[in-house]
Design goal:
By secondary structure, the chain is an alpha+beta fold. The protein has a six-stranded antiparallel sheet. It has a two-stranded antiparallel ribbon with strand order 1-6. 31% of the residues lie in helices and 27% in strands.
């Protein structure tokens, strides 16, 4: 009987440690994504959009460049994401295709990257941030916000 009680206690302790580790990992992930978001240039901080920790990488069906550092990624018939790269790609707006290097079934900003398939061979561009867009209108609004962005005037 003592063996069963000790086994039960050990199982509860191990389960408790496992859950604490998962919570810490989730909290670390949220903190990492928030830190990356805070370092983004203001033009990519579209009002009303929250940065995502990860996106399911199933059924990618298209993309459309916004500028040299961002694009709209379409998954399935109606799911869209704003993707912001860590640095500019001079070929993004004119590329024939892009590929996404992800190491799992999800795309994670800070870990996964985009290869721009154009006239020259380019290094991968790490994904810095991703934002879910509700519909086509939200995608158009995000595109327009980024393209129309103007640096605030400095008042002396």
């Amino acid at each position: 009987m003592k063996k069963y009680i000790l086994l039960l206690i050990a199982t509860v302790v191990i389960s408790g440690c496992s859950n604490t580790s998962q919570m810490t990992n989730t909290e670390d992930e949220v903190g990492r994504v928030q830190s990356m978001y805070e370092s983004l240039p203001e033009r990519y901080k579209v009002p009303g959009l929250e940065p995502l920790e990860r996106v399911n990488a199933m059924n990618i069906s298209g993309w459309a460049a916004i500028d040299q550092r961002s694009f709209i990624l379409t998954m399935g018939p109606s799911t869209r994401y704003l993707v912001v790269l860590q640095r500019q790609s001079s070929e993004l707006r004119f590329a024939n295709a892009i590929t996404i290097d992800n190491f799992s079934s999800s795309i994670r900003p800070g870990f996964d990257s985009v290869n721009v398939v154009g006239d020259t061979l380019a290094a991968p561009y790490q994904i810095e941030a991703m934002f879910e867009l509700e519909d086509r209108e939200a995608a158009n609004a995000a595109r327009d916000y980024i393209r129309d962005w103007q640096e605030p005037e400095v008042v002396e």
